[in-house]
Amino acid sequence: MAKRPKILVLFDVGEPTGLNVDYTEDLKSPTWKTERHVLNALRSLGYPFSVLGVHDNTALIREMISRFQPDVVFNMVEQFANSLSNETHVTSYLELQGVPITGCGSIGIALAKNKIISKKIASFHGIRVPRFMVHEPGKIISMDAELEFPLMVKPVHEEASYGISLKSIVHDPQELLSRVCYVHEKFQQEALVEEYIDGREIYVGVIGNDRLQCLPPREMTFGRNVPRESRFASYHVKWDESYRDRWGIKNRFPSSLEKKVEHRLNKTSKELYRALNLKGYARMDFRLTSNGEPVFIEANPNPMLAKDEDFALSARKAGIDYPKLISKIISLAA
C-alpha cells in the first residue's frame, strides 16, 4: 500500500496562538464542526497529520512547516488577524512556502471574492449577471438609467451575506439613497447596486483542476408564506436557525429541475470556474429564472466542508462519501 502523504491542517483562530496547542475542547464546539469533520476523516483514512491554528503570525506557519515537513497543507484559513479580507494574502504566503496546498489559489480567491470583478469577468464570457452599478463612498449617488426597481444593495467586500437583509431590497430612489448611505457608513466600502432577479436560489459545487466535475445542485427553498421578493439568501436566512425554522427555509436537492436546465447550470459553472482561475473546489451561486436561465450571483472558493453542509451533501449524492471527498481534495493540492 502506498505511503500516505503527511498533512499539515491549517485553520484560523480568533486569538494569538502557538505551536503544539491542544484544540481537543475547541473541536467539541458546533462552530468547529468543519475542522472536526475534516480531522476525523483524515484519521479514518490513515493520514499522518498535524494541526496549526493561525491568527496573525506567519512565522508560526514557516516554523511548523520546517518542523513537520508536510507533503500537503490542508488550508482552511479564511481570515488572518480577524479580517476576512486577508484570506488572499495568507493564501499567497502559503504558496511561497513550496508545499502544495488544498483548494483555490490566491489569484482565484482574489478574482472570485471581488463581486465587481467576478461579474465583469462572467459578463465578458457571455454569462448573464444582474445589471449593476457601484457607488463609492463620498461621491454623489445617482441612478443608472438602465436599472429598474426593485434593486438589491449590498457591500462589495463582505462575505457570508453579511450586510444583506430584507432592507437590502429597495423600491424607489429614497430607499436606494438610504441603503447606499447605510452601506457606506456601516461598512466603509463601496455599495453594489444590482437588479433583483426573481427566481430560485441554486448552488452548484465544482471540484477539480483541469478535469472538472459538477456535483448535483442544491436549492434554498422557502415556506409558502414567504413573499417572492423576500426569497433570497440574506444573513438571517443563511445563519439564523430559528429564523429558518420560522419561515420554512431549507437547503435541499431540487425536486423539479429539467435535465437541460441542469446541463446548462453545469456548463455555466465550469465556464465560470475556469474564467475565475479556480482550483481544487468551489461553489457557484445562481438565481434561476422561470425560463431556466442561470444568472450568476457570486462564486465561493473553498466553500464550507462540513459533512452536513451543501458541498459535502452534493458530493455524497454523486457517489463521493465524505472521507473520499477529503482524500480527493488532497489529491488535487497544487
Number of domains: 3
- The overall pLDDT average reads 95
Straight-line distance between termini: 23 Å
Query: How many DSSP helices?
Result: 11
* Largest sheet data: 6 strands, antiparallel
Q: At the third CATH level, what is the topology name of the largest domain? A: D-amino Acid Aminotransferase, Chain A, domain 1
CATH superfamily of the largest domain: ATP-grasp fold, B domain
* Helix and strand run: EHEHEHHHEEEHEEEEHHEHEEHH
Backbone shape: globular
CATH class of the largest domain: Alpha Beta
Q: Beta fraction of the residues?
A: 15-25%
Number of distinct beta strands: 13
Q: Structural class of the helices, strands and pairings?
A: alpha+beta
What proportion of the residues is helical, as a percent range? 25-40%
Radius of gyration: 20 Å
Low-confidence blocks of residues: none
Architecture of the largest domain, according to CATH?
A: 2-Layer Sandwich
Protein model, in words:
The chain has 334 residues and is α+β, with helices and mostly antiparallel strands. It has three domains: 7-101, no CATH class; 110-128 and 198-331, 2-Layer Sandwich (D-amino Acid Aminotransferase, Chain A, domain 1), CATH 3.30.470.20; 132-195, 2-Layer Sandwich (Dna Ligase, domain 1), CATH 3.30.1490. The protein contains eleven helices and 13 strands. Strands 8, 9, 10, 11, 12 and 13 form a six-stranded antiparallel beta sheet that branches. The protein has a four-stranded antiparallel beta sheet with strand order 4-7-5-6, with helices on one face. Strands 2-1-3 form a three-stranded parallel beta sheet, sandwiched between helices. Helix 1 links the parallel strand 1 (7-12) and strand 2. Helix 1 packs across helix 11 and helix 3 (87-95) packs antiparallel against helix 4. It is globular and about 60 Å long.
